[in-house]
Amino acid sequence: MNALYKRFRMTGILSIFSLMLCVSLAWGETTHQVTGQIAASHLAARRSPAAMMKDGHTLRVFLGEVLKISGHSEAVQANEMRAIIGGTPDLFRWLSDAGDLDRVLDESGMRAALGAGLEANHLQKSISQSLSKHLDSMVNGWAGPYAAQARVLFPNGAAQPLNQSVINAALFTVSQLPVADRARLLVQVQDSEFLDLTQSFKNSAENLQVDKIEVLKQMSSANFVKGDDSQEANAAIQELLGDYFKSMPIESKLALLADFLALAPEARPAEQLKTVLFHTDPFLQKLFQLLGRDMENPVLEEAFASLQNGMKPISFEEFKSIVDARLGEPTENVFVDFQPKMYRASTGIVAIATVKKTGQRVAIKVQVPGAKRKFEEAATRMLDFPSVRANPGMREMIRSTGLSIAEEFDYLKEILNLQRAGEIYDRPDLGISVPKVVEGLPQFSDFMVSTFATGVKPTTLTAEKDLVKRARLTGNLIKLWIDTALFGVGRTMFHGDMHPGNQNMDLQLGPKGTDTLMDLGAVGWLELEERRGLVNVFNGCLIGNPGSVVSALERVTGQQLASNSRLLKIIDEQFLFSKEPAERLETILGRGMNEAGVQVPKSFVAFIRAVRFLVGDVESVNAALKKVDPTFSKYQRLDFGVLAKEAIVSRLSSDLPRQVVSSLMRQQSTVTLKMMTDFSLGYSKLVLKKWFSCDTLFKKHGPLKLTE
User: 190-195: which pairs have CB atoms within 8 A and are 24 or more residues apart?
Assistant: First the structure.
């Protein structure tokens, strides 16, 4: 019997075993005379491999349900335990044969999946005490018609060794009973026995080392950041993850382990990891959304991609009850065709329905109850992690990102953002759109209704006939996003959560298809000086001038950075190893904040986060194009840097003549005349250098221009 088997047997299963001894006393047919006959029939009832696999899944589900019950109030625990035990007849059969239970544990896959996740010392002691208590109560506390059976089984009291064959025969007999008879027997067991049992399971969860679960061990040891000098950054992330899972509240552990056990024994590692990650809070899920773009491990990449919309679903009944409350009347009075299928959003759950009066198709978004509270508690807890207290850059990242995510929990702000976004992103000529707020319906900070966006997630469009439209829409979106974020009068707004889960592409809508941007809870705002700072940093990254980058960051942050050796090393590395301006910009700002302590403005953090998602869209499109056109003979690839430069140069060409004649334009423009000169000269040199380089002069370009 290996260590993990002992842990499980000494946790919940051994408690159930002792509880079933009580049940065996209540079964009047259990006598020495029938013991041999029942034991013989039990030994003959060997299970096929398929049946054993089913048993393994049943055991997992049973343990998961018991864990859920252990988190409920004591007032309902006893009856809930009676129901789950009485409804699992296989449990009695497994417990009547140690070898059978051993095989079922093997087939459940829990040994390999949980690894060293359970600590046994405390549990062994508590379960041993519980078992002794049960035996005493059985011998001394039973009265009436069951006293004779107690004397037969324990003629000399609880201290004497039990007759194992009698107990096994009794348990196997109970497994053959109808549900009603098992329920009758379980009613005879005192509530205190069930409360002790659920407490032992709760103790198991409290002592669960979540970070030792096998798939989490693999994730925590992964390299999240690429590069020759990424060791320090990866170590910081790994320490953060370790602290996070070690500090999980008991209610989160109970829910996590219950859902984990509900998986089939043959569940793939990616499915196991997804189940665990769904129990993390929105902050960590946002971090995983970004980190998943750089993962080379297919298991981690798939699991992180599943978090594009992060909330764990609630039941349709719970969803509907919230909608009823917010409407102030039954949902059926307002909506028809209210579909039970629901979709996850960053901070809530979405269901689709039709407005009864107008026939308009809408998306109803409801905030998951308690999600905001759990996020706030997690954000506060993370700031106190040892790994965060020791790392000023990590602390600043968590603080600023936490403030940004907190705004997403206010749907009234999202409604205002939707209205503003309509002015920015509603561009039928480019195939870009946003949902509209539905008038005439109540809106709350945790409840909103918007028009339904048809289509599918962009990542599902991989057929060759769809890729050209998908690539064109992606290119148009990037140029529009850059243009509207960096240019304009006054403060500009940009969508800050641009991952594929927040986009729906309908290739049949409009002349060239439509990409609808959703979930406007996370937006960024850029003041004029912030926009000038970003453009200056980007200009320095583009023309290869480290000094310009440092000067621009000093102006925006108010810090003296010319003597920050760590930042200077990061910048030098990027100009040495990275040729892509967008990648330089992202890395310098991200690592500058996390590793060099640069106080990057909150708006910059949101901007770079959104850029990372857009770069990921480009990489996804190009990967799909490579599969249908591996030789570059038919379709040219998207390039985020080229698209960004096209957007900026387009603005330069239109703004420069007006700046020459308008002092007001010069004051309100993102790009000053000096910046325009530097940018134009630097960009011209870059183009000439690229044009005359041998590796590009003879490069074969596709005949189709993918952006409008």
Answer: 190/137, 190/141, 191/78, 192/137, 193/19, 193/22, 193/134, 193/137, 194/19, 194/77, 194/78, 194/81, 194/82, 195/74, 195/77, 195/78
